[in-house]
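Dear colleague,

Thank you for sharing your sequence with our group. We've completed the structure prediction you requested, and as agreed, I am returning the results in plain text so they can be pasted directly into your records. Please verify that the sequence below matches your submission; if there's any discrepancy, let me know and we will rerun it promptly.
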Amino acid sequence: MKNIIILLSIISIVFSNCTKENRIQNLPSFNNERGVVAASSTTYSGTRILEPVILTDTQLSSFSSNSPGDIVGFKYDVGTWIQIPIQIDEMAILDITKPYGEPASGYNILMYTDANWRTGADPNTLIDNNDELVFMSKDAGNQFTGIDYPIGIIASTKKEVVINDGLTTSYVYLFQQDGSLQQGSGINYVQYQYSPTNTVFDYGNKRNIENSFITTSKYKWHFAGEWISDQLVLNNVDILDRHKAFFGDGTCLRSENTFSDGSNAMVTNKVGPVRAIRSYMGANSGPYTQRTNIFYEGRQEIITDLRVHSIEGIQDVFDYSPAASGMKYTNSLNSTPKIIDGVANETVVKGNVEWELISGGVGSLIILHRRYTTFVGNEATFSSYWNDAKTKPASKCTGDGQAWGTSGVATGFNNSNLYTEPIRGNQSYTSPNFRLLKATRILYIEEPNSGNSVAINYNSYLPLTITIN
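Please find the predicted structure tokens below.
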């Protein structure tokens, strides 16, 4: 029996001979390039039950003759087979101009495909090494030791997925089905209601206003426009004013509003039983700057690929709402809690933060920060941002005009000759001045009043070893 053993290492970045960005993105849930540990674990590892397990690349080679709908998943628990929801999301290497319907540029990236948008369906209708098969770690079980197989599957196609996190081992079994089973097994961990105002998506310089919700058993998230996230609801309390972007304090030339008002393209917008994926391009003079939100039951990834001409810097922050007043804020450089109260009386150490924690009686939000970049040395500076001045916010360009625990990442670029724009004007990915920057927030929704140790645990998880037998 063929064993495929893959260690999801946070330091293994493999480049293709097409463009660097192609192969960088062809990794499980983009985790390796972000520097985050592999996003999967066992049923028996405490808080890691919020993590997905994602199979991709050569892990999918044994399914290359199957259509995505052919495969189903099961766990074996105390002598009983239980079907679990799995999801297969197709991906393809496409020209970066594809979402806009423009002529090919020669610069290719890996994208989630979507037949409902200009990326189109995957050219390869069968499962291939670009695709992702995902299930939740909480759904893994014991090793199969019996002789009887589930009804509705072809027993000879069994693949045993062994998941080891260094402490415990758990198992999931994948089969080709006979057509009688649903891949989601009747379960939907995420609901996504995409509700645009316009019946036709406007790719031009006009905001596509929407009232879209992602809802799970642990949280609710709202989009008012492509780049405008303005609600995070925990236990019926909305603690988020905006996920903001701006160039500098008091500088309103660019923001999540102007990004949404400019030329935009939807790359992918879909939901399955395990996760929802929303990916979109266009941020004013960075039309190929891309953000991808991946929503799970208790976790979200926000991946931003910066692709723009030379800029001085950008702030990427969460500005909380007045409803967050009284919640506590800490991060990897500030272990003593700062009370979110709209009063600028805290001393906060700034620097390259790895995690943030916002905790209170309505719930806790843990944010891990990861990035992959080819900027080196002092070409770029990665620091943090904090402002809790309700009446005199440093930046009041968007949202409610107040600052409640506004916090996140502050990035500065120190060499005006360098850029992340791959194809526009006289800028090219073939130039020695071209750089890559992919920044990721990984959000976890945890129990009320969680302490620093919970965030530290998430931040320190080791990579998994996944074996497919």
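Summary note from our side: The chain has a mean pLDDT of 88.

Kind regards,
the structure core
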